[in-house]
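@channel sequence for tomorrow's demo:
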Amino acid sequence: MTDDLGTLYVVGIGPGLPHAMTQRAKDVIRTADCVIASNLYQEFLRHDGTLSPETAADGGTATTARGRPEQEVVRSSMGRQIELAREAFERVRDGEDVAHVSGGDPNVYGKSDLLFLMAREDEATDVPIEIVPGVTAALGGAAALGAPLSNDFCTVSLSDKWRGWDEIEEKLRAAAISGFVIVLYNCWRNYERAVEIVREERADDVPVAIVNDAGRGDAGRNGEGQTITTLGEATEHDDEVAGMGTSLIVGNHETETWDNDYEQFLVTPRGGRDVDDF
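structure tokens (generated this afternoon):
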């Protein structure tokens, strides 16, 4: 690596609000020469000054915390991903540090795979790449619910944009048979279909949590919140499966509800153990 190159950082910002971002993510974004982020994520990052309020999408600039004269903010959108990846490579080659912002964690249905695939396609082996992890919806939602993921779990995306439904169904059935607690992403697509498949292998009284905009509070698109129901009744909550920010946590035969004086929780003990096993 030469001193003339910058670094391409793929930065997970979790839900995007200050309390749920890692210090590393904040530092990288604050000091980058260029930040590539959607309008929604820009809004979140300005909330606490991680991005300067003086910058604006697509060309806005401000002084970086590192003392370089300008930080440019570029608006990201689904239709520009390939174009922006190539632009990021060129900026890094010109000596800039680029923060390419991903919600949640870049490796959990985020942007890291695209940038590596583009680097391979363009033979960009000279471009330094670093992944900065973030809190994904599965972890943020689980924290709000207590301890539903304390045993083995898996995530399954219900989006059929890149793979056919037959493959998604196969994975869902295998996860249900194997006893994994299952976190479903992209629930605005086919969530009723997914629930019915899991019901074929799992009892109707298994707890299920519907989680919206985990960690975002009032800043969420649908308003943060969670509802605990059962697998047999999960499809009766269409009004709470509100869009891209919704995930479902489907328990297994060991998952149980537990109430204290304030709220209800989900707990999946490891191996069904109790306090005497510790």
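heads up for whoever presents: Residues 62-67 have pLDDT under 50 and may be disordered.
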